[in-house]
Amino acid sequence: MSVSAIRRLILTGLLVAIGIALSFANPTFLSLDNLMTLLQDASLTGIVAIGFTLILITAGIDMSIGAVIAITSMICVNFISYTQLPAYVYIPVALAFGCAIGWVNGFFITHFKLPEFIVTLATRGILAGLALIVAVKDDQGFVKNVFIEDELFLSLGETIGPVYIVTIVFVLLAAATQFFLKRTRAGTNVYATGANPTAARLSGINTDRTLIGVYMFSGFCAALASIFLAARMMTAMPEFGIGSEMDVIASVVIGGTPFTGGIGDIWGTVIGTLFLALVKNGILKLGLSPYIQPIVIGGIIIVVVVVDVWYKAFAEKKAAQAARRKAMQGKEAGA
Amino acid sequence: MKSLLGSRKLPQEFRLFGILLLLMLFLSLISNRFLTVDNLTNVLWSVCLIGIMSAGFIYSPITGGIDLSVGSMAALAGIVANVLMNTYGMNWIVALLLTLAFGILIGWINGIVTTKFMVPAFIVTMAAKTYLFGLAMLISNGDQITIMEPKPFLAIGVGKFLGIPIPIYIMALLAVVSHILLRHTVFGRQSIAVGANEVAAKLSGVNPDRTRIYAYVISSLTATIAGIVMASLTQQAYAMNASGYELDVITAVVVGGTSLMGGSGSVAGALIGAIMVGFINNGLNLLDMPSAFHPIATGIVILLALIMNQGVSPLTVFRKWFSRGTAVGTAK
Question: What per-residue confidence (pLDDT) applies to A258?
Answer without folding.
Answer: 83
